[in-house]
Amino acid sequence: MRAGNLDRLIEFQRRTTGLDLYGTPVETWTTYATMRAQLLKNATDDREGERGHTTDATRTFRIYYFASLSLNDRLLYEGQQYEITQISEIGRRVGMDAICERVGP
Hints:
- By secondary structure, the protein is mainly β.
- It has no helices and 6 strands.
């Protein structure tokens, strides 16, 4: 993996729970890591499903190995939120490919 190919800036966010003014638990997303990545694949899929006609944006990012990354986290890229659906290790802790689907509109 060449550092010159890591030309995108992404953020990893983790779900945290805090309290609002009334003491009610509220779930929020907190950025815990910002790193460089390479955008490998940018795909859009139109399909008919249970929700009707949907358009899913799937992206694959290549990053340096990051041990604490999990499927419960999400990725933020260019202001868009992405759910991490698959993580695959490259080599022996050299890098990772994170396959993500866009969340929201």
